[in-house]
Design a protein that fits this description.
With 278 residues, the chain is α+β, with helices and mostly antiparallel strands. Helix content is 47%, strand content 15%. It folds into two domains: 8-190, GAF domain (Beta-Lactamase, 2-Layer Sandwich), CATH 3.30.450; 208-272, Arc Repressor Mutant, subunit A (Orthogonal Bundle). It has eleven helices and five strands, in the order H-H-H-E-E-H-H-E-H-E-E-H-H-H-H-H.
């Protein structure tokens, strides 16, 4: 029997990740869940999650990122037939459905010549990622879900593939639940059934200044650092953050960012992250 070289405290981390998973039902909750103990188990700044859509009869991909990424990359990674997703799926199938590290660098496992998406990823530092997935019941040639995790300059090793192997069933179930819930809520909105759903079918409640502060929060800056960027006091920034939390019904800064992303409250400004100061 193969043993996994994880320290005892890592087992506790995994237990907390698994125990928290059943509470994940919405897209922003999935993002927040992956930013906590999940990061200690499998570090990443970018994740691509795919699930089979029975209406479209294909795998549909969504993307979560805790660091700013150019819009061209975001759009490319959401495409099921993009060069990167093709390479990831091909490597995963060659590994016979086991978690695997995919390398994009010139000496890696993927031909990088002449592909703008791969070149853009490498330029951003995402030259490798770890991937895993599940096939549909009784249809081993068709995907049920597929996941990709990456971080700039990250060097994934065998322990990371083992970590994803162990976590895959939990990630799969949590993301499936998110997709079902979001689809049901979207259907409810179409039918006008928005009663009791805070934040749905209404204008974004945050101001432009609050949006600007949220962008800096998403970039990981402290209140003091934001105050220096904007030329205002740290106390003023703190007050703005508290107002944002109340308006979005968020318990903390990470959840506020996640909810704002879900509501499209950050707009196109996330493409110019780090350039929005005055």
């Amino acid at each position: 029997m193969t043993t996994h070289p994880f320290a005892p405290d890592q087992s506790e981390v995994l237990l907390r990740v698994v125990e928290a998973a059943p509470q994940v039902c919405r897209r922003h909750q999935f993002f927040v869940w992956t930013q906590g103990d999940f990061q200690r188990w499998l570090p990443h700044k970018l994740s691509v999650c795919g699930t089979y859509d029975r209406d479209q009869r294909d795998v549909v991909f969504d993307l979560f990122n805790s660091l700013p990424v150019p819009e061209s990359i975001l759009q490319g990674l959401r495409q099921a037939r993009s060069s990167v997703m093709d390479a990831a799926l091909s490597a995963w199938r060659k590994s016979r459905g086991q978690s695997v590290v995919v390398r994009l660098s010139s000496d890696g496992s993927v031909d990088t010549s002449g592909d703008p998406l791969i070149a853009a990823l490498i330029e951003q530092g995402y030259d490798q990622f770890v991937v895993h997935g599940l096939t549909r019941p009784a249809r081993p040639d068709e995907l049920e879900s597929f996941f990709l995790f990456a971080q700039p300059g990250g060097q994934y090793r065998e322990t990371d593939t083992q970590a994803l192997d162990m976590l895959l069933p939990c990630v799969h179930m949590a993301y499936q639940r998110v997709c079902v819930t979001e689809r049901q809520m979207a259907s409810g909105r179409t039918l006008g059934a928005t009663a009791g759903l805070p934040g749905q079918a209404r204008a974004t409640p945050i101001t432009e200044r609050e949006r600007e502060i949220l962008l800096w929060v998403r970039d990981g800056l402290s209140n003091q650092q934001i105050s220096e960027k904007l030329g205002i006091s740290a106390l003023t920034v703190k007050n703005h953050v508290q107002k944002i939390l109340r308006k979005l019904g968020a318990a903390n800064r990470a959840q506020a960012v996640a909810k704002a992303m879900t509501m499209n409250a950050l707009g196109a400004a996330h493409m110019q992250f780090g350039e929005s100061h005055h």
